[in-house]
Amino acid sequence: MNAANIASLSHAGVAVEVVPQTGSTNADLLARAPQLLEPVLLVAEHQTAGRGRAGRSWLSSSENSLTFSLAWKFDGGPQALSGLPLAVGVALGEALGRLGVQVQLKWPNDVLKDGDKLAGILVETQSAPAGGIWAVIGIGLNLVMPDEVEAQLGRSAAGAPWLARMERDVLVATLLDALADALRLFARQGFAVFSARWNLLHAWQGRSVVILDNGQVLQEGLAAGVDDTGRLLLDTAHGRTTVLAGDVSLRLGE
Q1: What pTM does this model have?
Q2: What count of other Cβ atoms lies within 10 Å of the Cβ of residue 188?
């Protein structure tokens, strides 16, 4: 991949960097956040210590996946970022759909294809010295899912071979443009303008689900989409309730 080529193909106006290998693009940008002056996209051809939500590892290779992080500054504090991972999911999901890969979203931050995980989103934050907050948005996207990687994961996962055949710089520039457009809209209007779009892509709308935390069932009911702040709506035996994003896993109920 070529950083200058990606930047020239993109309309986002974002600085682009490509490195052959790093531990974690999110960790790299978080460490640099106090010195950053503008948004930066950091793409790693190989990531050795990629992370998912709740400290889970993300397996990747240069041939089979795409891993990158985008640092973006917002005004306000962490509360201004409520729903941001879901807005990113909408941008990524809609962009993949335009590229011919139909996906759905699993609350709070997974992208599914045919019911299996195709991409994950990890948003981490760092206060900006002059005020505001940097969000570092990490995305791992499976392109090809070899059997040996599925064996390492211990579960089935999705791939998108059509994307693997695309010119990689074009793919990155396309996803960058979709993300930058979404982040600018989010900065102006928050998650509320994304909630209906998220619900259109909701993988488990109306399905029986359980909300788990460290293996313990916290709640169960019918998944009813998200509200305008990004909370999951759950229709239970006792009425509708909301679930906050956090260290919670969503699984189909038995």
Answers
A1: 0.89
A2: 8
